[in-house]
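Chapter review: from sequence to fold.
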Amino acid sequence: MESNNVNRRSFIQSAILAGGGLISSPAGHALTEQDSPAGSGPRRVKIATVSQMDIQPYVPGEKMISHILEIMETAAPYQPDIISVPETFSTIGEGTRKPIEWRVETTNIAIERFRKFAAAHNCYVVCPGHIKENGRFYNAAVLIDRRGNVTGNHKKAYPTQNEMSAGVSPGPVIPPVFETDFAKIGFQICFDVLWEDGWRHLKDAGAEIVFWPSAYAGGRVINAKAAKYQYVVVSSTRKHTTKICDISGEEIVKTGFWSPNLAIATVNLEKALLHTWPAVRKFPDIKSKYLDKIKITNFDEEEWSVIECVSPELKIDAIMKEFELLSLYDYVKQSTAAQKAARGV
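The token string follows.
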């Protein structure tokens, strides 16, 4: 068994160093550029996300930063719009025994090196780590734009008790939403997943993609967040599965046994999740008018339907307005308001 693990590790390492990368689909096959061509259709975003699973040697500091950058370099030929990496990736391990000031210094080194990477490859980069602002320390996700500029950060709202004992302060409960050139995006970090207010605020503020750098994989909870709030959720984890979930909660792509460190997918943002009834009554008219320019996928048991623009000339907001459709999220909000009115609240 150990021999098999070594052989797998050697194969993966050689593939990464060769620049090919290994990008797993949910079905387990290698996902190539031909599977998800960038720019072929409506508003498509190419996302790359990194896991630290099985990285050896697991040494914090500049060695770890270099190792993660090597993985990111294998994603660069795919020309991603954005790359995300795990929570406090550069200081995990023995680094947790060092003072928080060391973790801030190490994060600063990572930010500078990631800025150069972003500018060189014309992509956004998410660089999680520890930062210091106004005399307080935070666990944060720092966003770097295509030119290598730091555009802002999300501070972890719900750090663990161990983190707070080590000097980490809770960040604002209301997370920021960032305008990029491809979408509105937001962040939640690890333990933030257990509270709803940040996720809800991001939806109400118009976020279309939420990045979740984390120490653990989250599992089905990540799929559930994507489906509940109907935005794309991208995890970047230290261990186990890193994945990208669509607005229906389905996994678009994820890491796995043969591809433990990198997943890439092109995501179409011109889509909406609806409650099938009563929207289904309008589906024949939509299909009759737009034919194969619109794709409708029905989830029979949930009574959800995803309506997706597959032609570059169509926008989902215009289709929704034309046929007087509501997303499931807005449908529930509308129903809740009507129920409150009926209760006299």
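Two observations follow directly from the output. The chain has two domains: 2-268, 272-343. Residues 272-343 form one domain.
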